[in-house]
Every structure is written in structure tokens, then in C-alpha cells.
């Protein structure tokens, strides 16, 4: 799905300091490496086409989700929301980021505290936190994704809380993507144990019926209720009057849909033009999808003053 290798910027935030990215040496004993006991965020900062400062999209919401995810895994972050916000903005500034940039904070279990016995655990293990940035524009084919309904079921919330972005849980998504790509598709759509649609590998999914009604699986389901998803729901209602139904969505509805699109920080808003090698609707991006993409692009590029509070400017270098 990726159209190029992102280029890492020079500095990272690691162990409380801004350091050269290439100088970081993480011990092989790092607990999260063994057990998937880390949490992360994916955040985007957008360039202003008119040369203003870079602006981070919904930074507060991402920082709050990182803190919630960390609490789920008993990861003690040495920073509060205000400090985390400052670290992200400072890193972008110090790296001299001027073009579109992807920001990746990770908080993870690090080392057994003295006296903690060897084994899989959360308590008695210290925590670490890092942030890296990469220069990265759009990376999915905006002409449309071909998705495969995965034979891997989405890990249920009852097994790993899906509202938390937990690194280990992404083995599920990686298996699904691998399977989809081996079948000539770009991405996977995953079902829950009851056979209802949950989400794609790194994005939420919206289904537009032939009657024009829009549905997306509920935030209480086995999925990560994305920040982009919430933004799309709000944008659609405020700007077009379309109220998105948050309810279980069946595979039959997907097959019958006039349009399908996915939303996520990484993929942004992207049409799904084929599912299991069959065209969705006309097989081309639909009108509503095109409209959502237009609105979203205008918002992230600072062209919609009503949504200025969704953007946090990075002080210019
Ligand atoms: C599994 C999964 N679902 C949904 C999303 C979309 O979330 P957001 O819009 O907050 O980026 C992501 C990306 O973070 C994801 O990894």
C-alpha cells in the first residue's frame, strides 16, 4: 500500500531528551519487543500551502488517546498532556520540518524492576517513551483501494481492549494485510466474531448505501474509534447535513454499497473501489467520498476557519 519509504528526520525524543535518531540503542531485553506491551499514536502535521507554519491535526485528541492507551497497559508516562504536546511541537520545530510530516510517539514497557521475576507482566516493569518524525505525504492510492475481506477475524475487545492502540495487537492487522496483498489487494477489511464489519488494517470504514444513507460500525465494537472517524462524522453532519448511522454493518451491505471509504490519520480519506475483486458501486470514487475528501483536505490545510481549533500550529523555525 505504501508508495515509498518515509525519510526519518534527524532528531528523536528519547529518554527525556532530544537526541540524534541514529544514536538511539534500545536494549534487546526491552520488554515490549518480546511481549508487544507498547502503545503508540500516529499523528500528522500538515504544511500550509501559503507558507505559514506547519499545523498538527487534532493533537490534543491524539495525546489524550496516548495517555488512555498507556493507562490500559500500566505504562507510566513521565509527562502529562501539556508536556506531551510541547514535546511533539518542539521536536517538529527542532527537526526543521516544513513539509507534511508523520509523528510517531511510542510508550512501552522497558525493563524488569529489581526484584521483579522474569515473565510476561505489566506491573514491576519500567516504562519508556519516545517520539520520532518522518517526512511523509499521502501514501495510499487516492484513486481507490482494493480491499479483501480478511480470513483473520479482528481481535475482540474482550481479549485486547481495541480502544487502546497497543503494539502487540497489530500482529493481527499485519497478518490480514499480508494475506490481502498476497491476493493482489491493497488492504484488508476485518470482521468480528459475529461476521460484522469492524475496520481496515489502519483505518475505519464508512459504507454509503444506494439510498444515500451512511453507516459506520459503532465505536463500542471491536475497532479503534479513530480521531479521523469522529472528524468525518462531525464534518458530514455540520457541512452536508448527512447523519452517519453508527451501527453494526453486514458483509451483505458492503457488497450492495454504492460507495465505501476509509478514514485514518495515515490513509486520510480514501475511497475503496473494490472489495474481494468486485467493484464497489461504479468502481470509481463516489460523490460523497469525493466531498468528504475535499472537506477534510480543506480542514487539515487550514482553509476552514470554523475548524481552526482542530489544528495546532508549530512555531516557525
Ligand atoms: C486499527 C486502526 N483503526 C483505525 C485507525 C484510525 O484512527 P485515527 O483516525 O485516529 O488515525 C487506525 C489508525 O490509527 C488504526 O490503526
TrEMBL record:
Enzyme class, first EC level, given as a word: transferase
Reactions catalysed: L-valine + 2-oxoglutarate = 3-methyl-2-oxobutanoate + L-glutamate; L-leucine + 2-oxoglutarate = 4-methyl-2-oxopentanoate + L-glutamate; L-isoleucine + 2-oxoglutarate = (S)-3-methyl-2-oxopentanoate + L-glutamate
Function of the molecule: Acts on leucine, isoleucine and valine.
SUPFAM superfamilies attached to this UniProt entry: D-aminoacid aminotransferase-like PLP-dependent enzymes (SSF56752)
PANTHER family: AMINO-ACID AMINOTRANSFERASE, BRANCHED-CHAIN-AMINO-ACID AMINOTRANSFERASE-RELATED
Protein name: Branched-chain-amino-acid aminotransferase
Keyword Transferase: yes
Entry EC number(s): 2.6.1.42
Cofactor names: pyridoxal 5'-phosphate
Assigned protein family: Belongs to the class-IV pyridoxal-phosphate-dependent aminotransferase family.
InterPro entries linked to this entry: Aminotrans_IV, Aminotrans_IV_CS, Aminotransferase-like, B_amino_transI, BCAT-like_C, BCAT-like_N, Class-IV_PLP-Dep_Aminotrnsfr
One Pfam entry name: Aminotran_4
Organism superkingdom: Bacteria
Annotated metabolic or biological route of this protein: Amino-acid biosynthesis; L-valine biosynthesis; L-valine from pyruvate: step 4/4; Amino-acid biosynthesis; L-isoleucine biosynthesis; L-isoleucine from 2-oxobutanoate: step 4/4; Amino-acid biosynthesis; L-leucine biosynthesis; L-leucine from 3-methyl-2-oxobutanoate: step 4/4
GO molecular function: branched-chain-amino-acid transaminase activity
Keywords: Amino-acid biosynthesis, Aminotransferase, Branched-chain amino acid biosynthesis, Pyridoxal phosphate, Transferase
